[in-house]
Amino acid sequence: MEILNALVALSNFVLIPAIAYGSQLALGALGVTLIYGILRFSNFAHGDTMAFGAMITVLVTWWMQSHGIHLGPLPTALLALPFGILGCMALVLVTDRAVYRFYREQKAKPVILVIVSMGVMFIMNGLVRFIIGPNDQNFADGTRFLISARDFKKMTGLDEGLAIKTTQALTVVVAVICVALLFWFLNRTRTGKSMRAYSDNEDLALLSGINPERVVMYTWLIVAALATTAGVLYGLDKSFKPFVYFQLLLPIFASAIVGGLGSPLGAIAGGFVIAFSEVTVTYAWKKVLGYLAPEGMSPDGLLQLLSTDYKFAVSFVILLIVLLFKPTGLFKGKAV
Amino acid sequence: MTETVKNTALFLGVAVLVVITGFMQSWNSAILIVNMGLISAIMAIGVNLQWGFAGLFNVGVMGFVALGGLAVVLVAEPLSPEAWSAGGFGIVLALLLGAATVVAAVLVSRHMPKGRGRNLAMLAVLVLGFVLYRAVFDPNVMAVEAINPAAAGNIGGLGLPVLLAWPAGGLLAAGAAWLIGKTALGLRSDYLAIATLGIAEIIIAVMKNEDWLARGVKNVIGLPRPVPYEIDLQNDAGFVESAASLGIDPVTASTLYVKLGYSVLFMVVLLVLLWMAQMALKSPWGRMMRAIRDNEVAAEAMGKDVTRRHLQIFVLGSAVCGIAGAMMTTLDGQLTPGTYQPLRFTFLIWVMVIVGGSGNNFGAVLGAMLIWFLWVQVEPLGLFLMQVITSGMAEGSALKSHLIDSAAHMRLLTMGIILLLVLRFSPRGLIPEK
Description:
- The complex is a heterodimer of chains A (336) and B (434).
- Chain A is an all-alpha fold and 336 residues long.
- Chain A is 73% helix and 1% strand.
- In chain A, helix 1 (2-38) packs across helix 12 (286-292) and helix 2 packs across helix 10.
- In chain A, 46% of the residues are buried.
- The longest helix of chain B is centred in the middle third of the chain and has 33 residues, at 250-282.
- In chain B, helix 3 packs across helix 14 (306-332) and helix 4 packs antiparallel against helix 5 (116-145).
- Chain B has helices spanning 3-24, 27-53, 61-76, 81-111, 116-145, 165-184, 189-209, 211-214, 230-234, 237-246, 250-282, 284-294, 296-301, 306-332, 342-356, 361-390, 398-406, 410-425.
- Chains A and B meet through helix 4, helix 10 and helix 13 of A and helix 7, helix 15 and helix 18 of B.
């Protein structure tokens, strides 16, 4: 019984939140890694791209809610998501045309593109704050819990409750669908194959007649879709606040680099590595160990390795360790 | 038009903008802009040292600025013997234990043969060290934070004059930069960027959460000042008299006097640092730096130690940012870790350097003054613009109030547009590198 209780507490406070957070990070990191693979620079504006897509989705969700359009137990934001993706696609295509293309033609150094993306970051950040304001926005609706803690206790008779939020389950399902679609696209379709070829060897790809502008355009479209989805899922799970998306930049980059920049599989692995370590290191283990320790030996302190405010430090330390011992990441990324 | 004339004209242009502010708004806000502009100029010189001279991509400026601010508290706050006897020494001991753990782990990894034995030994050292560290650290922190938590609860400072905190801020930032540079400078430019971004966030997180150090988010207020207090000036008969002879009322005169005092101090620091940076740029050392920046491989082939030189300039540039951070906290008279945001303290400084002209110290200074002026003035300008745009709309319409409320966010948009325009049409900045 004690072991079961410990297991349930562990899943409730560590495993489930970490899986949901990891999926969100993985989707974000996939975007970063695709840009890095095809356009060959680190996109500092990625967090704000996520915020922009999520913002459009929030606005459409509100409009739908005011017109009585609902999805029943699921959040209405799912219906609004395609509109958010379309809006985000339009934004990144315009940005690419107006800003990035010039530097691509110049064959500018990657670091110049990084600075350019800083400018884009300012503009997108300003745009989002201008349209929706800097405050918390609530747009989640539908049933809140798939299983609530009380129902779980009643069902199983355990002391510990297990709560699964609808948004957490949804995050995982949507993320799996997205990743499956992405890998199908990259491995099975002609465009996807040309993207991979372009990423592996630009010169050979150009020689074999691949149109680079087309590849770049598809990359931006996919990145916009991934970024919006990640942004909306994160917003549903926590809450939508423009500044938070900017802060997500660090764990997202950490995920992409840990997995190996340019490697989609690595981005997913990296996202889960970062999420699990953040949650486990900042979780207070008192409860779980209290069940496992023999009678009378339960720990006094909270057994929290680091306070939750240091979660940035965790992703960062992992990043440094991986870079020092395996500079190209877990899945052999590329180095420009 | 020769180069000197053009550059002088640019600086005069910024001066004219400030004078216009003085006449249109108030001299107090004009001098405030100048003061923060001077501090920004010093930060820009620091970033220019790293980016313009050596091509190091540091986006952790905010962290070093915040460390400078921390130095002000640690140097200038009055001594707190009570806190030291309660647990201050214990905290220092704990930190030493933590450092010893890291050193021991490094020694183990250097001196033991590779293999499972080494990994296990390292793990054991780290775990044991961490447990020991927490066992000493936690009770002492509790003891210190329990002392008068509403007003103090930290270990206090050294009670030294606040001006000493400026070089101390530079030293603190330099120390942190040395540690960071040792681990992160070998990385590629993108990785270095992410690494410094992360370190800045960690520094801020530490300052927010370690209440024993500088009260965390409870803020430290009422830091000592290097200039007299306004209220003392107003009670000083001699000052009131001389203000009256100039035809200014004593309250305005005292605020202006204090702000001008800061301006003079900041100007002195800026001129000294600018002179030093110029001399460094022209010296063989500066030429070597630029040679390394332009072609690392060739410089290495000529026998230059690239890693060492990078570490050197990374430390120097960060120290300059630390000095500026200490000056800013002195000007504010308070340390508020919650207000440090990367957009304002890292990326805005970058905009200043790029717009001014990376690689040119005067460019960095000009960019800093100009961008800071715009950062302050875009808000009222945006509000004015919005009022003009919405003047035709119906009173009380939702769109009108939304547009007017959002005017404050125009400054980020403007900064982004300025940065992109400069990068596109004048990528070498207003005063390009020679």
